[in-house]
Amino acid sequence: MKTAVIAVYKNAAFLxxxxxxxxxxxxxxxxxxxxxxxxxREIIEKYSLRATVSERRRGKWRALNDAARIADGxxxxxxxxxxxxxxxxxxxGADVVEVVKEVEGKGLLEKLVAVDYLVMAMCAKLASKFGxxxxxxxxxxxxxxxxxxxxxxxxxxxxxxxxxxxxAALGGYRFAVCGRAVTSVPKSIGEWFRQRxxxxxxxxxxxxxxxxxxxxxxxxxxxxxxxxxxAIFGLVISLFFTxxxxxxxxxxxxxxxxxxxxxxASIAILAVYEMENVRxxxxxxxxxxxxxxxxxxxxxxxxxxxxxxxLPIYYFIYSPLWTVICLISLVRVAVARVTGRKIxxxxxxx
Length: 350
Fold this sequence. Notes:
Layout: E1 2-9, H1 15-24, E2 27-34, H2 38-46, E3 50-54, H3 60-69, E4 75-80, E5 83-87, E6 96-102, H4 108-129, E7 140-144, H5 145-150, H6 160-170, E8 175-183, H7 189-209, H8 211-215, H9 218-221, H10 229-241, H11 245-253, H12 262-302, H13 311-339
Parallel strand pairs: 1-2, 1-4, 2-3, 6-8
Antiparallel strand pairs: 4-7, 5-8, 6-7
């Protein structure tokens, strides 16, 4: 038997569509609803669904655990109501399965986030080759009931899904990728920042807690370097390629050429400066072209639609910004651990 737990906060979103599809697939559906609108209650009654309902926001980890306690299935699907399942296969021998998510939208931000989800799918697919993962995306994933119970369910964390996935990986549980779902994404920059702040703080919290164990298992984290490749390459360029001691020496020596010919000295210094810029530009462009080729191949392989025109914006702006947010969260979490303070996140309850 299979059980689907659908998390709902306030509005129904794709709840009814998912219930219809999942019941056809043989799933028993349980709704975990916080502060539900009347439409949610009507769907629960219409389809005679079991549900755990709270008039106040419990925190997602608690809401999911409450629903999981009354689940009967040997396979558990955890799904957000703003994510709609397109196709789904079973666990196929794995203990934890990440469902591939994609984004449908015409706005620039939605197109950039679509690239983000493709990169996440690439990382998950690569990690699955090693039979492991560095967390799961809670919008849609499956887990064996036995594994879920052995791990103690969800813990009180900002990113309860990341925490469960990392503990599963460290515990040696098998990981795979399957299926397809379409998920909703932020429609504004403000919403995007709030979401990414939550993801980065929650992810860092779990990463720092398990740092020593994760570091000892490169197969857990190496695949995810792909996620931050644009920023990592830029850092390598700034740290190593700019350390051109010959150029620095020329910058010191060439001004003295002005004693002979100021015009020649100016031209020589400008030439050295432009050569440095051109070298860094060529390295950056070459890296971008290689990365874009990888994205194109991955999109074809995974049957994933992305707008290739937004790749320069993603590579040179979006990804570095996302990396900076993660680094800032690392500092915030480290300070919070030292001082014993709790990090407050807007529009989120733990």
